[in-house]
Amino acid sequence: MNVVLPAPGEPLRMVAVHAHPDDESSKGAGSTARYAREGVEVTVITCTGGERGDILNPKLRGNAEIEADLPAVRREEMARAQEILGVQHEWLGFEDSGLPSGDPLPPLPEGSFATIPVQEAARPLVEAVRRLRPHVMTTYDENGGYPHPDHIQVHRISMAAFDLAADPEFAPELGEPWAIAKLYYINAFHRQRFAAIARYLREEGQPNEELEDMLLHFDERTDRLLTTRVDVRDYLQVRDDALRAHATQVDPEGPFFRIAHDVDTHAWGTDDYELRISRIGVELPETDLFAGIRHEEPERAQPEEGGWLDLVRSEGHESSSDGEGR
């Protein structure tokens, strides 16, 4: 399989695949904003329009104008968030599946994103990959980050498109084959980060009871593997501004915004990823999604001994060059 790396002077390219408008601003937003400002061609691909979402901002509930056409409002919110992040954006065009509840769970709406066979649903993503020719793709893990059917479907079609886009025998009408060099899972909400922040606050004499209670619900045995941590300390405000642009979807006083930037900067300060598949040789851990792809590696903050570098080493993933990320 021919992996084409960028020529000298050619821009780096990445696609970030997400389920709904607002996901791009709550998962990996700091790193996409950083890369866009560094000259990387970053494209966010949103699979659905969020048509079956709710109004989660208590200050906007009951707003008749918003409720009359929530999908249109969410498209406007997405456009504002895109501008703030500085990325390109494409809709994949599928219909939100909603988040079913009840016992037993009701069937998903017919024709919604999560009900479509994976290879069929992957076709527009294959077309986008072949046209955009990214060097890196980011997506969700096998559990979707959380078990929303659309998030799980994002994982499935991303994995399928990673393979199918490179297969010259698959759907030649969708464009020339393109082999993405590296595929990452976004590890946005994980115990390690929250534990580090809670520990820092305790050491500063400012324990956060809400955070401590939340940590009781995590199981260390299910910690995600963090192979790659991108320094986003200078982009925390951009991340928050992009998320607030999705005004119907977030409470501006809610838990997303309760960790002060100076606390996050001192205690953690990175967007975290798991390198799941690499078609080039890699050395872990990384501080850059484009490690091994760039012609000139930028100077980036290095992890401190006793911190996340040791965490990765303890998992037995200090380095790899056999083409697999784990």
Automatic annotation (TrEMBL):
Cofactors that this protein relies on: Zn(2+)
Region Disordered, residue ranges: 295-326
EC number(s) per entry: 3.5.1.115
EC category name: hydrolase
Name listed for the protein in its UniProt record: Mycothiol S-conjugate amidase
HAMAP family assigned: Mca
UniProt xrefs under PANTHER family: N-ACETYLGLUCOSAMINYL-PHOSPHATIDYLINOSITOL DE-N-ACETYLASE, N-ACETYLGLUCOSAMINYL-PHOSPHATIDYLINOSITOL DE-N-ACETYLASE-RELATED
NCBIfam families, sorted: mycothiol_Mca
Native source species: Brachybacterium muris UCD-AY4
MF annotations from Gene Ontology: hydrolase activity, acting on carbon-nitrogen (but not peptide) bonds, in linear amides; zinc ion binding
Entry keyword set: Hydrolase, Metal-binding, Zinc
Catalysed transformations (reactions): mycothiol S-conjugate + H2O = an N-acetyl-L-cysteine-S-conjugate + 1D-myo-inositol 2-amino-2-deoxy-alpha-D-glucopyranoside
Taxonomic classification: Bacteria, Bacillati, Actinomycetota, Actinomycetes, Micrococcales
Residues that hold Zn(2+) according to the record: H20, D23, H151
Quaternary organization: Monomer.
Protein encoded by which gene: mca
Record's keyword annotation contains Hydrolase: yes
Record has Hydrolase as a keyword: yes
Compositional bias annotation for Basic and acidic residues: 312-326
Similarity annotation: Belongs to the MshB deacetylase family. Mca subfamily.
GO biological process, one term: mycothiol-dependent detoxification
Cofactor: how bound: Binds 1 zinc ion per subunit.
Role, per record: A mycothiol (MSH, N-acetylcysteinyl-glucosaminyl-inositol) S-conjugate amidase, it recycles conjugated MSH to the N-acetyl cysteine conjugate (AcCys S-conjugate, a mercapturic acid) and the MSH precursor. Involved in MSH-dependent detoxification of a number of alkylating agents and antibiotics.
Transmembrane segments: none
